[in-house]
Design brief:
Its cofactor is Mg(2+); Mn(2+). Belongs to the monomeric-type IDH family. Keywords: Glyoxylate bypass, Magnesium, Metal-binding, NADP, Oxidoreductase, Tricarboxylic acid cycle. By secondary structure, the protein is of the alpha/beta class. 45% of the residues lie in helices and 16% in strands. The strands form five sheets. It has a ten-stranded mixed β-sheet, sandwiched between helices. Strand 7 and strand 8 form a beta hairpin. Helix 1 runs parallel beside helix 24, helix 15 runs parallel beside helix 20 and helix 16 packs parallel to helix 19. It starts with 6 loop residues before the first strand and ends with a helix. It binds NADPH dihydro-nicotinamide-adenine-dinucleotide phosphate, 2-oxoglutaric acid and magnesium ion. The site of NADPH dihydro-nicotinamide-adenine-dinucleotide phosphate has 21 residues, from helix 21. 2-oxoglutaric acid binds next to helix 20.
């Protein structure tokens, strides 16, 4: 057994998961040390990525290597075994806050140049662009996605159901989407015949041709598609829906994915901001221009920038903003206590988390008065909006789902090689004037795809490689077989891209033994309706989806079924044989950090980490032929099951068991399972005394962990906390620390 092959990389990320790591990782290291397993860390946090990208500005001691690039390379090798925690996918305001914090800590980083004035600033902006938005996941995800709630987790939810807001048959909540001029309506798609290079060019109204992208390498048999969102149509759509929301007496809310769709979605978000606050943007156009206000960053950008104006002018603009609320429909709020609306910051209204949260809460959101109210969920593009409307319709008719009886909906998602929309950023452009955007075969000059565009339209091109599609079809068959569960491919024959994928599904399915399996293809809305009915009847259904619905469904169903997507097993079997084990399916829970800072209670549930670690150890056992790793995996699974049975998940309330206490219980159950197994005598012997000590000191340890709470916490930073202070804060039980130290 070579050391190199028994290596697990544990990622350091941001916010709540990074705090949880300070407590959990020492336990993991202690428990795996005697089994020849190296657990190494790599910092892929937002702050870490910023630092790694600007070595020239920093001192020798401040510099760190580009861990993300390193892990991206590792993910393409068979030995990859990476545990990936959720990380911040930064919006511009978040990036700016990170830079500010690092500067205050003595990092001489350049400011983010919103409007670069020269080449040097252009280059700084380009470097910062590398860390913006969803910059981590696409680099590591060299495989497709397998996300599900393991049996023990589903059972736990049935035994301990989370609250579900009741639905009224009179609910006025609904999804609003465009009926023309969107990506769905304009999509064109084709399958490439023979590898070649392509370029994307713009032809203006007078026939002048300019190149938007010099070279896109196309593989044989890959699917390419392009589509356009019309600026005129989307602006009109927002105008109408905002008006209608007022007539319908519902909150107005917008749901986008400005982080993963980092080029197109902030622009659409910006249009909405400019329409809702139209009077202010019109009246103060000149001042906003001088201040460099960017609506794509949200109305929060106005508030941030008017601070530079004389107080009188500032007050005038603030009053004008306030007056907007008198005439416009009430806005859905991210945080009504702090007056943060859904149009403040684009990263606050991430569709995958925000829609299910509302669907769980009676189909309502919170208004400016802090009260729940029926809502217009605005999801402009038609590609996926119907899925959420299907849930609204189902719940209005049948009432809220019952977590004690509902079925489960695992997902098999097409994700590898930056599949579909989530890989489109470098091929997304805003039309500078009216004309044509076309994709041309560089070798032959043949026009592959062509779209008429008007000034301001968003053009977007996507690629989906053939090998990932084959792998995805195989994964769907495998999961359906292993779990004996029907699987539905959510594909719409009337959508250009999906029609190409359907051809491939029909081509590749016969290559597998599908006898006795229930596999079907349905358009997303229909697939969702059928899945919901089955779910309501307690039946399970695998959703086999493209990349976007992978993202949406793996928050939607877990949030309804388990209360949070943090409890999901999320595996990415890498195409070259390695394993990427993501923890949960959700994000970095900024609200949890706010509570931690206020009262030293961290309600983050690390169940996703426990599940990922067990899967990672199991993978290691096979890859490195390390039987001890298998024992660790099996005993960790047993410990996790007991953890759930005994209900040791973190509470939401201060001075009760939190994230740290939950880690203690996991370590106690894990030590007990290791001590009592008979597959590896060394491990049994090593963990006997630990299990005993932990059991004996249970009361004392829990008291030490809970009594530490109830005070405010300062760990020297939000995006880049002081490591020592964070470690100290997250490990307040000397008794536990001393017992763990005996293993090292
Ligand atoms: N894989 C990844 O790297 C992902 C990263 N993100 C990033 O995370 C950030 C926040 O995204 P957001 O959309 O707010 O979604 P989050 O998933 O972070 O948060 C939504 C809510 O889910 C609940 N929740 C999430 N994780 C846990 C957990 N482990 N234990 C208990 N509850 C949990 C919390 O609810 P409550 O407050 O009720 O406790 C939380 O407020 C963004 O920067 C986003 O880009 C988002 C998704 C995936
Ligand atoms: O990469 C991101 O920004 C978020 C990822 C995500 O939401 C998911 O994969 O479910
Ligand atoms: Mg998601």
């Amino acid at each position: 057994m070579s050391k190199d092959t028994s290596k697990i990389i544990y990622t350091i990320t941001d916010e709540a998961p990074a705090l949880a790591t300070q407590s959990l990782l020492p336990i993991i290291k202690a428990y795996t040390a005697s089994s020849g397993i190296d657990v190494e860390t790599r910092d892929i946090s937002l702050a870490g990525r910023v630092i790694a990208n600007f070595p020239k500005y920093l001192s020798e001691e401040q510099r760190i290597g580009d861990a993300l690039a390193e892990l991206g390379d590792l993910a393409k090798t068979p030995e990859a075994n990476i545990i990936k925690l959720p990380n911040i996918s930064a919006s511009i305001p978040q990036l700016q806050a990170t830079i500010k914090e690092l500067q205050a800590q003595g990092y001489n980083l350049p400011d983010y140049p919103e409007e670069p004035q020269n080449e040097a600033e252009e280059s700084i902006k380009l470097t910062y662009a590398k860390v913006l938005g969803s910059a981590v996941n696409p680099v590591l995800r060299e495989g497709n996605s397998d996300r599900r709630a393991p049996g023990s987790v589903k059972q736990y939810a049935k035994n301990n159901p989370h609250s579900m807001g009741a639905w009224s048959k009179d609910s006025k909540s609904h999804v609003a989407n465009m009926s023309e001029g969107d990506f769905y309506g304009s999509e064109k798609s084709m399958t490439v015949d023979g590898a070649t290079d392509m370029r994307i060019e713009f032809v203006d109204a007078t026939g002048n041709v300019s190149v938007l992208k010099e070279r896109v390498a196309l593989e044989d048999k890959e699917v390419i598609d392009a589509s356009v969102m019309s600026k005129k149509s989307v602006v009109e759509f927002f105008e109408q829906e905002i008006e209608k929301a007022k007539e319908e007496d519902v909150l107005f809310s917008l749901h986008m994915k400005a982080t993963m769709m980092k080029v197109s979605d902030p622009i659409i978000f910006g249009h909405c901001v400019k329409v809702y606050y139209k009077t202010v943007f019109e009246k103060h156009a000149v001042v906003f221009d001088q201040l460099g206000v960017d609506a794509n960053n949200g109305i929060g950008d106005v508030y941030a920038k008017i601070g530079r104006l004389p107080s009188e002018k500032q007050a005038e603009i603030e009053a004008d903003l306030q007056a907007v609320y008198e005439t416009r429909p009430p806005m859905a709020m991210v945080d009504s206590d702090r007056g943060i609306t859904n149009l403040h910051v684009p990263s606050d209204i991430i569709i995958d988390a925000s829609m299910p949260a509302a669907l769980r809460a009676s189909g309502q959101m919170w208004g400016p008065d802090g009260k729940q109210k029926d809502t217009k969920f605005t999801i402009p593009d038609r590609n996926y909006a119907g899925v959420f409307q299907a849930v609204v319709d189902y719940c209005r008719e049948n009432g809220a789902f019952n977590p004690t009886t509902m079925g489960t909906v695992p997902n098999v998602g097409l994700m590898a090689k930056k599949a579909e929309e989530y890989g489109s950023h470098d091929k997304t452009f805003t039309a500078q004037s009216d004309g044509i955007i076309r994709s041309v075969n560089a070798a032959t000059g043949e026009v592959l795809l062509s779209h008429d565009v008007c000034e301001g339209d968003i053009f977007r091109m996507c690629q989906t490689k053939d090998a990932p599609i084959q792998d995805w079809v195989k994964l769907a068959v495998t999961r359906s077989r292993l779990s004996n569960t029907p699987a539905i491919f959510w594909l719409d024959e009337n959508r250009a891209h999906d029609a190409e994928i359907i051809k491939k599904v029909n081509q590749y399915l016969p290559e597998h033994d599908t006898t006795g399996l229930d596999l079907s293809i349905l358009a997303p809305t229909e697939a969702c309706k059928k899945t919901l009915v089955r779910c309501g009847n307690g039946e399970d259904t695998i959703s086999v989806t493209g990349n976007v619905l992978r993202d949406y469904n793996t928050d939607l169903f877990p949030i309804l079924e388990l209360g949070t997507s943090a409890k999901m097993l999320s595996i990415v079997p890498l195409m070259n044989g390695g394993g990427l084990f993501e923890t949960g399916a959700g994000g970095s829970a900024p609200k949890h950090v706010q509570q931690f800072e206020k009262e030293n209670h961290l309600r983050w549930d690390s169940l996703g980490e426990f599940l990922a670690l067990a899967a990672s150890l199991e993978h290691l056992a096979n890859f490195a032929n390390n039987p001890k790793a298998q024992v660790l995996a099996d005993t960790l699974d047993a410990a996790t099951a007991k953890f759930l049975q005994e209900n040791k998940s973190p509470s939401r309330k201060v001075n009760e068991l939190d994230n740290r206490g939950s880690h203690f219980y996991l370590s106690m159950y894990w030590a007990e399972a290791l001590a009592s197994q008979d597959k590896d005598a060394e491990l049994a012997q090593a963990f006997g005394p630990v299990a005993q000590a932990l059991t004996k000191q249970e009361e004392k340890i829990v008291a030490e962990l809970n009594d530490a709470q109830g005070v405010s916490m300062d760990i020297g930073g939000y995006y880049f906390p002081e490591q020592e202070a964070a470690a100290k804060a997250m490990r307040p039980s000397e008794t536990l620390n001393t017992i763990l130290a005996t293993l090292l």
